[in-house]
Predict the 3D structure of the following.
Amino acid sequence: MSIGFKSLITGALLVLAGAGGLWYALGGLPSGHDNPWLSGAEGYEQAQEVALQQGYPLLYVIESAKCRRCNALDTLLWRAPEMQSSLAELVKVRLNPDAGDGSGHILRRFPKVGTLPGVYIQRSGESLRPINIEVKDQQIWMPGVTYGRGFFMPLSAAGFDAVVRVTLSLEDPAIDNAPLP
């Protein structure tokens, strides 16, 4: 039994296709597994280091375990499969003042949050910027020329990405508070 040239080429192509499929399947895992949510004072400190090393913006979520809006936002946005690629490019920190993990001490550096959840974004070394999410109405605030001149839009992965991009690029003295140490 002899193996022809065409059979060798076909076999090599099948092996390459199989290897490519395996590479894609293993590389296609959500990167959220490599970039988990951090929490508390220890997570805050670790997030600062990761943000400096990787150049990713920091996303802070201020929440409470007993907060219904916080739990709804967690289910609606943070755990949504379509959000995982967006969240993979952020260093994510959960701060809960009631958790006893040092979050309360860290939150002294943040503006007071009137109604939980509070969501902030920050590039390392820059000012802290709010992201206003109305959980009950499933709306997110899209800043305009200034932070105060904008509009609400439906809460979605695409909306969140757009708001993050605009908020980070916005130069507005009204929200440019002192950078966190």
